Amino acid sequence: MGRVVISVIALIILATIVVGRAEAQTTDIDVEVSDAEYDFGQQITFHLKATAPTTITKANLFLSVEGQPDTTAVPVPIDPGAEISVDFQYDTAGHVLPPFAVINYWWQLHDEEGAQHSTEKNLLYYSDNRFAWQSVAEKPQGISLEVYWLQGDVAFGQSALNVAVRALSEIYRQLQEPVPGVIRIFIYPSEGELRNILNLTGYGWSGGQARADLGVILIGIPDGPGALGEMERLIPHELTHLLVYQATRRMPNHVPPWLDEGLATLSEFRRDPSRPALLKRALAEDGLFPLQVLCAPFPNDESAALLAYAQSES
Fold first, then answer.
1. Distance of alpha carbon 179 from alpha carbon 264, whole angstroms
2. Cα–Cα–Cα angle for 243, 124, 189, nearest 5°?
3. Beta bridge pairs of residue 209
């Protein structure tokens, strides 16, 4: 029994020494600089300066988007040495990064003795910094609701914010689900401008887009007499997608598109008047989509997509 106790004590002491050495190894590398800057839709430049008592032999960069499960690991070439300075350009054109996402990034460094050091996570808000955005904000029921726009005066932005506050109250009353703590609505001057940003960041085109995992809405509305009508159509529609995402506990694939889009179209303050006529004609011509078709992503063809929306609304 005595030998067993002594052996166990010896193992504990040995383990403590090994862990202590490992912990000591991870603190030998000193990171002086770890930051980033970017040109939206083109590249992110990551800067790193680090020193070590021995030669740093390897550097890996890690990226993750808040709200998304995957992490991207990027081996970064360096000149091995006791001091390294890195300016690494990450080509965003070759990777799909959601516009207005919060990006976490950190480094993992190795030296010739096997020591490993991971830097703290830094945050990069990947907004469209090509423009000077105007903004207004309000906090209805403790929710930070922010509207950003490019074209038009402050009355334009306030009108959008008023529609959003009203819509949020109406949709919440219907769904009775918690909403994101921060909702940001970005209004581009036209559908063409919005199409450009979505293509630039690797996303397909739609009239508006709710990035529910990010709490972000992107829409295109030109300043003019018809702006308020478009706000009353698009903003409630996209806000509904955000709340449906919350209602499904962030599992949107569990909701068929006809239900998600049907709820969104019913939330619009100004619905598309062409949809009822389109539905009536398709019904008369026996041209309705089977329900199973509406359980898959809607067609890319514009006329077919409009019919899918009309059926979902009904």
1. 15
2. 60
3. 218
